[in-house]
Amino acid sequence: MNTTSNWRGHPITWDYTGERWIYADTSEPTLGNRRPCGHCGKPDTPEGHDGCLGSLPGVMNACCGHGCKGLAYVQYPNGRRLAGTRALREIRRLQKSRTGKKPLLPIPAAPRALQPWIAAGLWLALVAAGFGIYCLVS
After folding, report:
1. Are residues 74 and 122 in the same domain?
2. Domain limits for position 12
3. pLDDT digits (tens, 9 = 90+) for 1-32
4. Quick one: 130 and 90 in the same domain?
5. What pTM was computed for the model?
6. Per the structure, how many domains does the chain have?
7. Percentages of the chain per state (helix, strand, coil), in multiples of 5
């Protein structure tokens, strides 16, 4: 049985002997071997954001999807989360607001006591959907 997935736009395979994910083309472990996006080719920013996104104002975390629209997401500190094509539209809107072409509307934050639960809920939802830790780190 061969278990395969995708990590930041690169095909990966589960190595049963080493019990780790490896890149399908080189057999290098994914852990500790960051690559540029497999879709656009841009490396991460120095802050660790997807190269094509940069820093998005008011966003807790986001992912461009690396060529897979269904994996794109934007999450705000108040727990609001957009996914897929809605997330990609929001990313474009935020990038325009960052350049001064559109005003950015403030997003209210969730109460501090709820923030860890919101983050945990996102993690559980992604794991339950079969995305595992690999979508969270991107």
Report:
1. yes
2. 1-35
3. 678 888 888 999 999 988 899 999 999 999 98
4. yes
5. 0.62
6. 2
7. 30, 15, 55
So what's the pLDDT on residue 1?
Answer: 62
Examine the domain organization and report whether 57 and 28 are in the same domain.
no
Q: With H, G, I as helix, E, B as strand and everything else as coil, classify residue 4.
A: strand
Give the number of residues written for the chain: 138
Distance CA 129, CA 124 (A): 8
Tokens of 116: 């860890």
- 78 and 110 in one domain? yes
Mean of pLDDT over the chain: 76
What's the DSSP call for residue 114? G
Are 47 and 34 within 8 A, CB to CB?
Answer: no
**pLDDT of 57 strictly over 60:** yes
* Same structural domain, 26 and 54: no
